[in-house]
Write a structure and sequence with these properties.
The complex is a heterodimer of chains A (about 210) and B (about 525).
Chain A lengths: L14 H26 L7 E4 L2 E2 L4 E2 H13 L4 E2 L2 E2 L1 E2 L2 E2 L3 E2 L4 E5 L11 E8 L2 E3 L1 E4 L5 E7 L4 E6 L3 E5 L3 E7 L9 E5 L13 E6 L1
Parallel strand pairs in A: 9-12, 10-13, 12-18
Antiparallel strand pairs in A: 1-16, 2-3, 4-5, 6-7, 8-9, 10-11, 13-16, 14-15, 14-17, 17-18
Chain B lengths: L9 E3 L6 E3 H33 L8 H32 L10 H23 L19 H29 L9 H31 L13 H35 L6 H14 L16 H36 L8 H4 L6 H24 L2 H4 L7 H30 L6 H27 L19 H34 L6 E2 L9 H9 L1
Antiparallel strand pairs in B: 1-2, 1-3
Helix pairs in contact in B: 1-2, 1-3, 1-14, 2-3, 2-4, 2-5, 2-12, 3-4, 4-5, 5-6, 5-7, 6-8, 6-10, 6-12, 7-8, 8-10, 10-12, 10-13, 12-13, 12-14, 13-14
Classes of the chains: A alpha+beta (about 210), B mainly alpha (about 525).
Chain lengths: ~210, ~525
C-alpha cells in the first residue's frame, strides 16, 4: 500500500510489466530518432539567428537602423503624376491601413550575395511592418525581430508560428507555393505585448 | 520504545490508526486553507476570462481588465493554489504517513507568513497597480512596480525553506526512531517532488531576482541591469516547466494514495514505480526547452537534444505509472471477487466515491489528453503549428487543471476527515463534484485545442477586434464551447470550494484520542550503542 512501509520491494518485474517497459523504451527510441531525421531532411525551424545590440533606454537598437535603411530603399513611394511626393525632404511612403504601414514589393528587392532576397519584418506595439508583396514560387529570407517587447509571428490561415524577440534577428526561409490560390495572409501577434492593443496587432502579407 | 519530548504532541486517528503530529496538523490546516482561498480568487478570474474568450463580441470585461484578470488567473491558480496545497501535502507526507514529527515548527510558520505576504503582494500589484504581464512576465514588458517580482521571490523563498524542512523531517524520522525502513511510496513521490522543487525554485531565483533588481528603478534605484529576453525565457522555463513536474510527481503520488484509500490498491511492483519517479528527476528538468522550439537564439541541435532523449525519458516514467496505477486497482478489485470478464473490476469500482471517480477522471484526462498533446507539441516540426496558440492552454488545462487540480480536490475530501478531524458537510455534493468539474473542463480543453488548431492565438481579448475576419466560424463555435465549459467547470469548482470551506470550519468534529506516541523504533544513537556493545 502506498502509505505503508514496503517490506521487500526490490522484486523482479512480472512478464507483462517487462513487455510494457520494452515497448515504451522502444517507442521512446523511435521518437528520439525521428525528430532529428525530420530536422535534417528539411522540416526544421530556420537555424539562422543574428544577435543585435538592443538597449532601449540608451536608444540603441541596431535592427531598427537596418530596418529603416531597408524601408527607405525599397518601400513603395507615393506618386502623383508619375513623380515621387516629397515631404520634408523625404519621399512620402505609400501606406495601408489605419496604422499607416508601408508596403514593400519583394520583386524590386535585389538578391544578396548569398543568392537570396532578404526581407526585413519588424514587430512593434502594435503593428507589423511592412506589408510584403511576395511572388508565388520564389524563395525569400525573412528577418523577423522586434523593436520593443516580445511579439509572436503567427501566419494565418497557415497557422505557422514563431517568436520575435528584441535584439535577435530570426531568419526564416519562406516560399509561397507555386500553386497557392490565397492572395492575402494575415500575421497575428500571439505573444502578449500590452493590454491596450495586443489583440489589434495584425499584419498582412500579399502573394501574387 | 524510547521516550521523547515530542511524544505528547500526537493524536491517533480512529479510522486509520495514523499518528498525527498536532503542531504539524495546524500547519497543514493553514496551508490548505490558504490554497483554497487562492483557488477561489483564481476561479473568479477563470470564469471572467472564459466568458470573455467564449463570447468575444460581447466584451464582458474591458481589454485591460481582461489581461489583468488573466495574469491573476495564472498566478493564483498555477502558483498559489497548487504550491500552498503541495506544502500542505509535504507536511502530511512527512508526519502523518510516517507517524513522525515536523521539525522547526516556528520556522515553518515563518515560511507560511512570507509566502502569504508574497502572494498578497502579487495580487496587490495586479489588482491595484494594474500589472498585466501574464504568468510568464517576459521582459522587456515590465510589471507596474517591483511588488510583483518581490512577491514571487518571497513566495518562492518560503516554499524553498519548506522543501528543505520536509527533507530534514525525513532524516529526523529515521534518526529519532519514528520510522524505519524504506519510505512509503506516497512519501517517496513527495521526495521526488521536493527535489524537483528545489531545482525549480533555484531557477526561479535566477529568473526573478534579476527582474526584481531591474524593476527597482521604478523606486529610483537604477542598478544598470539589462535583461536579455532570450536568457530570461531560458531560465524562466527552467522554472516554469519544472514547476509543473513538481505537480506531476505530487499528483502521481496522490493517485497511488487515492488508489490505496478507495479500493485498497497496492502498487504492483514498487521497484518499477520508484524507477519511474526517478526518471522524472533526471530527465524532465532539462527537457523544458520545448517551450523555446521556435525561438531565435538557441541552436537547433541543443533544442533537439533537449526535446528528444531527455523528454522521452520522463514520458517513459509517466507511461509506467499509466499502467501500474490501473493495474494496482485491478488487482485489488479482483482480490475482492470482481473477476468476471475483462472489465467487471472496473464496472464494480466505487464510482460514487469522489476519491475513485476523481482519480479515474484525473488519470484519463491527464494521460490521454494532456500527456498526448504535450508530447505532440514538443516535436520540433509540429511545434511550429502550436506555439502560442490556444492549443497550448488546451494542453495544460488537461494536465494542470483536469489532472493535478482535480486530484488535489478529491484528495482533500479524504484529508479533511483524516488530517483535520472534520466530516465532509455534504457527501452528496462531493460525489457529483468530480463529474461536473470533469465534464466542464473537458469542454474547455476540447474547445481550446480545436480553436488552437484553427489558429486562434492564446491571451487575446478579442480575436476579431479589427473586423479582419481572420478565423473561420468553426473557431468561434469552439470558443463558445470554452465559454460554456468554463461555466460548468466553475460550478464544479464552487461545489468543491463551498464544501471544503464549510467542512473545515463547520464540519462535524471527528473525535480523536490524544495519547503519548513514542518513537516505535530505536534511535540512531541507541543503535550505535547496541552496535558497539
Amino acid at each position: 500500500m502506498a502509505i505503508f512501509t514496503p517490506k521487500n520491494w526490490w522484486k523482479p518485474l512480472h512478464r507483462g510489466e517487462k513487455i510494457w517497459v520494452y515497448v515504451i523504451i522502444g517507442w521512446g527510441i523511435i521518437m528520439t530518432v525521428m525528430m532529428p531525421l525530420g530536422h535534417f531532411w528539411g522540416q526544421n525551424v530556420s537555424q539562422t539567428t543574428y544577435k543585435y545590440k538592443f538597449n532601449p533606454e540608451k536608444g540603441i537598437n541596431e535592427f531598427e537602423t537596418i530596418f529603416n535603411n531597408f524601408i527607405n530603399k525599397y518601400a513603395e513611394k507615393e506618386l502623383v503624376d508619375g513623380k515621387v511626393v516629397i515631404v520634408e525632404g523625404k519621399p512620402k511612403l505609400k501606406t495601408e491601413g489605419p496604422s499607416m504601414i508601408p508596403i514593400v514589393d519583394a520583386s524590386i528587392v535585389p538578391k544578396s550575395s548569398d543568392g537570396y532576397v532578404h526581407l526585413f519584418l519588424a514587430a512593434q506595439t502594435y503593428r507589423f511592418s511592412p506589408i510584403f508583396k511576395l511572388e508565388r514560387g520564389k524563395e525569400y529570407k525573412i528577418h523577423i525581430s522586434s523593436f520593443d517587447v516580445q511579439h509572436g509571428f503567427s501566419l494565418q490561415p497557415l497557422n505557422i508560428n514563431y517568436q520575435a524577440l528584441p535584439g535577435y534577428d530570426f531568419v526564416i526561409t519562406m516560399k509561397p507555393r507555386s500553386d497557392e490560390k490565397l492572395k492575402v495572409f494575415n500575421i497575428v501577434c500571439n505573444e502578449f505585448c500590452g493590454s491596450s492593443g495586443h489583440h489589434t496587432m495584425i499584419g498582412k502579407m500579399y502573394v501574387k | 520504545m524510547n521516550g521523547n519530548k515530542f511524544s505528547n504532541q500526537f493524536r491517533t486517528c480512529e479510522a486509520t490508526g495514523l499518528k498525527v503530529h498536532l503542531p504539524a496538523q495546524k500547519l497543514f490546516w493553514v496551508n490548505a486553507v490558504s490554497a483554497v482561498v487562492f483557488l477561489l480568487v483564481g476561479a473568479i478570474m477563470a470564469i471572467m476570462v472564459a466568458l470573455t474568450r467564449g463570447f468575444p463580441s460581447a466584451h464582458i470585461i474591458t481589454d485591460s481588465m481582461f489581461y489583468q484578470f488573466l495574469t491573476a488567473h495564472g498566478t493564483n491558480m498555477l502558483v498559489f493554489w497548487i504550491v500552498f496545497f503541495e506544502m500542505a501535502g509535504l507536511i502530511f507526507g512527512a508526519t502523518a504517513i510516517l507517524g513522525s514529527r515536523f521539525p522547526a515548527i516556528k520556522l515553518a510558520w515563518f515560511n507560511w507568513i512570507i509566502m502569504i505576504i508574497g502572494a498578497i503582494m502579487v495580487n496587490y500589484s495586479i489588482f491595484w497597480e494594474g500589472t498585466d504581464v501574464m504568468f510568464t512576465a517576459y521582459p522587456p514588458l515590465a510589471a507596474k512596480s517591483p511588488f510583483f517580482y518581490l512577491g514571487i521571490v518571497l513566495f518562492a523563498v518560503g516554499a524553498l525553506i519548506y522543501c528543505f524542512q520536509f527533507l530534514i523531517a525525513l532524516v529526523i524520522a529515521k534518526k529519532e526512531g519514528w520510522h524505519e525502513g524504506s519510505l512509503p511510496l506516497f512519501t517517496f513521490a513527495l521526495v521526488t517532488a521536493a527535489i524537483i522543487a528545489i531545482f525549480t525554485l533555484l531557477m526561479g531565483a535566477i529568473t526573478f531576482v534579476p527582474a526584481l533588481l531591474f524593476s527597482l528603478k521604478d523606486w529610483g534605484l537604477d542598478l544598470g541591469i539589462n535583461i536579455d529576453p532570450a536568457v530570461f525565457r531560458l531560465t524562466f522555463w527552467g522554472f516554469g516547466h519544472s514547476a509543473q513536474q513538481i505537480n506531476l510527481a505530487a499528483m502521481v503520488g496522490i493517485w497511488y494514495l487515492l488508489g490505496t484509500l478507495t479500493v485498497g490498491a497496492q502498487p504492483v511492483n514498487e521497484k518499477l514505480s520508484r524507477w519511474a519517479f526517478f526518471l522524472y528527476i533526471i530527465a524532465i528538468n532539462l527537457g523544458s526547452i520545448h517551450h523555446l522550439l521556435v525561438d531565435p537564439a538557441l541552436k537547433s541541435t541543443y533544442k533537439i537534444f533537449n526535446t528528444t532523449y531527455l523528454m522521452y525519458a520522463a514520458v517513459i516514467g509517466s507511461l509506467i505509472h499509466a499502467v501500474s496505477i490501473p493495474a494496482a486497482i485491478e488487482v485489488a478489485q479482483r482480490k475482492k471477487g470482481y473477476t468476471k470478464g475483462l472489465f467487471q473490476w472496473l464496472r464494480k469500482a466505487p464510482w460514487s466515491d469522489p476519491g475513485f471517480s476523481g482519480l479515474a477522471i484525473s488519470l484519463v484526462m491527464f494521460g490521454f489528453i494532456g500527456g498526448v498533446t504535450g508530447v505532440v507539441m514538443s516535436v520540433e516540426q509540429l511545434n511550429i503549428l502550436h506555439h502560442n496558440n490556444l492549443r497550448v492552454p488546451g494542453h495544460f488545462h488537461a494536465t494542470v487543471v483536469a489532472g493535478t487540480s482535480l486530484a488535489f480536490m478529491v484528495v482533500a475530501y479524504k484529508l479533511i476527515p483524516l488530517a483535520l478531524q472534520r466530516k465532509i458537510v455534504s457527501e452528496k455534493m462531493a460525489k457529483i463534484q468530480p463529474y461536473v468539474f470533469g465534464i466542464g473542463i473537458l469542454m474547455v480543453i476540447v474547445g481550446m485545442t480545436f480553436a488552437g488548431i484553427m489558429g486562434v492565438p492564446r491571451r487575446s481579448w478579442d480575436i476579431n477586434s479589427l473586423g479582419a475576419n481572420i478565423f473561420s466560424s468553426g473557431a468561434y463555435s469552439m470558443l463558445v464551447l470554452v465559454g460554456i465549459g468554463g461555466v460548468v467547470a466553475f460550478i464544479g469548482l464552487l461545489m468543491f470550494i463551498v464544501n471544503a470551506v464549510l467542512s473545515v470550519f463547520f464540519g462535524k468534529k471527528i473525535p480523536s484520542k490524544i495519547e503519548i506516541h513514542n518513537p516505535p523504533y530505536e534511535t540512531a544513537s541507541a543503535k550505535a550503542v547496541t552496535a558497539e556493545s
